[in-house]
Amino acid sequence: MVAMNTTATESTSPTPKSALTRQRILDAAAEVLSRKGYAGTRLVDVAAVARVQAPAIYYYFASRDELVEEVMWVGANRVRLHVEEVLAALPEDASHMDRLMVAVDAHLRYELQLSDYATASIRNAGHVPEQLRVRPAAEEALYSRLWRDLFVAAQQAGEVRADLDINVFRLLLLGAMNWVVEWWNPRTRSLDELVATAQDMVRHGAGVG
User: Fold this and answer.
1) Distance between alpha carbon 201 and the CA centroid of its chain, in Å?
2) Cα dihedral 71, 68, 31, 33 in deg (nearest 10)
3) In this structure, are residues 100 and 161 in contact, taking their beta carbons and an 8 Å threshold?
4) How far apart are the C-alpha atoms of 112 and 1, rounded to whole Å?
5) Cα–Cα distance, 110 to 16 (Å, whole number)
6) Could you tell me which of 169, 177, 178, 174 has the C-alpha nearest to residue 207?
7) Using 50, 70 and 90 to split pLDDT, how confident is the model at 1?
8) Which residue pairs, CB below 8 angstroms and at least 24 apart, start in 177-185?
9) Please, where are the H alpha helices in the chain?
10) How far is CA 6 from CA 2, 195, 205, in A?
11) In 3D, which of 30, 21, 23 has the Cα closest to residue 3?
12) CA-CA distance, 188 to 83, in Å (whole number)?
């Protein structure tokens, strides 16, 4: 999986060499953390992927934990921004259920196909020390609120069952989609099939009729 290097690639102005190196280290840490987890992530491995000497990492990050925290925050931040961007591109007359379907698609494709950051953040949320969870958790709360608003709007529009506990359903859905990173194997089922199944779960589990 290739990490999205948003900071380094989206800017149209020249980026200082030090900023490029920092971004390369961050991308490498996301890749290593997504594969090896918090306990197995070593700076020497990050350095090898980033093509720098391990001591050079300390020029940009004071410790391994500071680097891990940044990866976790970026992962939570980027998936939220990605889903928000995809939703904003929908036509104004898109139904609330269509918006939910698109959000499911965007979330799963981003975490499984587009970003090592999202995978690293999701896989390690329960394994990093509590002090490293504060900043990422704040981003995750914003993202959870985005999904709450989607379900509230759909319920108020009569597109989601009135008797549905949308808070419980939302948490179950996000938990299920996040857990996919632990078991999904593209050799046994395609990403399209996975997305369609998750969408059916929402449509038939929460929808009206």
Assistant:
1) 20
2) -130
3) no
4) 8
5) 28
6) 169
7) very low
8) 177/104, 177/107, 177/108, 177/111, 178/111, 178/122, 180/108, 180/111, 180/112, 181/111, 181/112, 181/119, 181/122, 181/123, 182/123, 184/112
9) 6-9, 17-40, 43-50, 57-60, 64-88, 96-109, 116-124, 134-156, 166-183, 191-206
10) 12, 24, 35
11) 30
12) 26
Q: DSSP label at 188?
A: T
pLDDT digits (tens, 9 = 90+) for 90-134: 999 999 999 999 999 999 998 888 778 888 888 888 888 888 889
Neighbouring residues of 50: CB distance < 8 A, sequence distance ≥ 6: 21, 24, 25, 27, 28, 29, 57
pTM of the model: 0.83
What does the block give as tokens for 17?
């060499």
Q: Which domains does the chain have, with CATH numbers?
A: 64-206 (1.10.357.10)
For residues 57 and 29, the answer to whether their CB atoms sit within 8 Å is no
First-to-last C-alpha distance (Å) of the chain: 39
Q: Would you call 32 exposed, middle or buried from its count of C-beta atoms within 10 A (0-12, 13-18, 19+)?
A: buried
**Sequence letter at residue 153:** A
